[in-house]
Design goal:
Layout: E1 11-15, H1 21-46, H2 53-81, E2 84-87, H3 114-122
Antiparallel strand pairs: 1-2
Helix pairs in contact: 1-2
InterPro entries: DUF7318
Keywords: Membrane, Transmembrane, Transmembrane helix
Transmembrane segments: 21-46, 58-77
Amino acid sequence: MSSSGSTYGDIHRYEPARESTTAAIAIVLLTIIEVVFVGLFTYGLLNGWGLSELGNMYLGGVLAVIFIDLAFILMLYRKEFLPDVMIVKKRRRKWEDLYVREEEQYGTESFGDAWDQFKRAVYPYYKR
């Protein structure tokens, strides 16, 4: 589904998620494996496995497996259960910086309204 609108915030393209049952089952199984490895890591940490060189390497490997498993869970969830949405965004000019407004592109007076300049320096998103 796409729209022909070109104003800021319009949805340009929307593709619904596949939501496959296979991905849901895989996420559940990976979550169970994740819980088992987190339990193993916690057990090893509480029993002092990290005090020896071999145990420390073992705990590091288990922690690496935990994060890799979590990465696969998040990858499957993002690919199968989140829709692909493209919205129209406001295009920025090359000279624009995050804190520069269009009326201030050539700078401001040195000491004119110094209190407002101080507030903007302390809090950049200050609005009038």
